[in-house]
Amino acid sequence: MVERTLILIKPDAMKRGLAGTIFSELDGTAETVGARREVTVDIPAREVTQERLERHYARVIEKYGEPVRKDYIPCLTGKPMILAIYSGPTGTKKAIKEKVGNTNPKKAEKGTIRGDYGDDDLELSVKERRAVRNLVHATDYKNPEEYDEEFAVWKDLLHQLKS
Predict the structure, then answer these.
(1) How many other β-carbons are positioned within 10 Å of the β-carbon of residue 38?
(2) 137 catalytic per annotation
(3) What are the domain boundaries of the chain?
(4) Quick one: pLDDT band at residue 162, thresholds 50, 70, 90?
(5) φ and ψ at residue 121, rounded to 5 degrees
(6) Catalytic residue among 5, 7, 137, 138
């Protein structure tokens, strides 16, 4: 069975020029499990809309409520990102997600992307009512439907890939 995982390089990583570094880390992890980066697409700011982000983060909004919609999503809206899809054997999603690290960069282990390059604290971002600067999004490997849901949000920008 082929697993796919969707990656978003977020605006904070773009601003800090970390996209190449993050992809180097993820590509290395992918190789260790026999996976590969299938596609990479620059997403222009005009395509990063409130509506698209609300669809992408629908599960997060459902879990954490209105603060995500009101405080987090506006911080990402209208800023360029990079989308990538990795594919490989069973275990690919988990390996990539573990390489990304804990959602809260302050709690992420060294050796993970967020642990090595993160400079923010989720709890502080909540108090300040802003997006946490955690660099990258990766599909949750614990939820088998999540990749398909995320792919549906961005598929119009992925002309070279079939679901």
Answers:
(1) 17
(2) yes
(3) 3-157
(4) very low
(5) -130, 125
(6) 137
